[in-house]
Amino acid sequence: MNDATQAALEQRVAEEQRHHGMRPFFYVWGALLVLTGIEVYLGYQNMEPLRMLTILMGLSILKAALIIAYFMHMKFEASTMKWLTMCSLVFCLTMMVVFFPDAFRLLHLGAAAR
Amino acid sequence: MSEAVAHHQAVAGVYEPSLFGTYSKKIGMWLFLLSDSLTFGALLYAYSYGRISTPNWPTPFHSESIINATIMTAFLLTSSLTMVLAVNAAARGNASALRGWLIATMICGTGFIVLHGREWGNLIAEGLTLPVFPSVPGHEASAEFANVSKLVPMFPATFFGLTGMHMLHVTIGVIYLGVVALRKKFIPVLLVLWAIGYFTIPAYSPFHYGVHVLLIGAVVCSVILWLRPKVYDSADVEVAGLYWHFVDLVWMFIFPLVYLMSTKIL
I want to staple B146 with a disulfide (CB 3.0 to 4.6 A). Which of A51, A53, B127, B262 is the partner? Predict the structure, then answer.
């Protein structure tokens, strides 16, 4: 067996050993249910929409982070995998915000016409 | 370690360490999920764009819709936990526990689809509909929902577009897990479900045609299993799990943005 194969096998074994007990997954599941409950509770509070949106999106990003980190196992991946995937995802999604000024332009255009 | 080396002796020289510290199947699934997250990102941004640019955006969801969507969320979150347990069973080599947890995940996913389908049916009957959906005979649409469809057509368009795309992903996920759990034994199950759906769902429901996804799934899975018959290993289960958790993850944004931000508080 050559060195590359040996290194690949060691990497695979090391990856399998990154598995751990199941308890954190139950905690994460419980936390996700509680966060969902908080979101639903907030849905019934007559809150100003922008404030409500900010809180709900904050909670959703927290839930997404928990799912990616634990359920999708990203917390236990190699750092190159973590940084490459997460940075590219955040960058691409953030770029789409470029459309929002146009939505506000339409809103103000409608208000001016009225 | 020695077991792993012995297992791979026959193909020594083929493997090289990955730059990302993991196997190529998992990297491939992550790349697919990154692209799919942009699909959902675009849909969610389109929904938000419509909402910002439209004055008096409707907030038509009553308590029944919110309670229904909350139960659906609980189903999805629980299915993610059972999926984690399935991946764990696969890593331990416990085939019967693996199959059981995968089937539990599929049941939770199916529960989500059924509840969502019921929700769609109620909303369409009430008048929140798209021009392509036929009207429901013998049911009087409520003025409130009919007005929403008429005055802000972007609301039903983005609502049905987003949730329909997500429902399609959940359905594909259930089929994917079914194939991993039961392999070719799952094909007749799919065909029976398709036949039941097609012959029992009334023709005015969009699901009368939507159920053909199961038929297409059965054909595609048959071809895959015929071309590449195999026993799925723990890596395959983990990769299937990544897809399933992603579907759960997307719902964590759809639920607050589409439902909770459109709650009618009485």
Answer: B127
- Interface confidence, given as ipTM, is 0.87
CA distance B136 to chain A (A): 30
Q: Look at residues B110, B109, B101 and name the one whose alpha carbon lies nearest to residue B83.
A: B101
Tokens standing for B134? Answer: 């036929």
CB B186 within 8 A of CB B179: yes
Spatial contact of B142 and B62, defined as CB atoms under 8 Å apart: no
Kindly report, residue by residue over B227-266, the tens digit of the pLDDT: 988 888 899 999 999 999 999 999 999 999 999 988 876 6
Whether residue A52 and residue B261 make contact (CB cut-off 8 A), yes or no, is yes
User: b vs e for B130-142, b when ≥16 Cβ sit within 10 Å of the residue's Cβ?
Assistant: eeebeebeeeebe
In terms of DSSP H, where are the helices of B93-211? Answer: 95-126, 143-151, 154-182, 186-200, 206-210
Distances (CA, A) of B183 to B189, B223, B231, B232, B238: 11, 12, 8, 9, 16
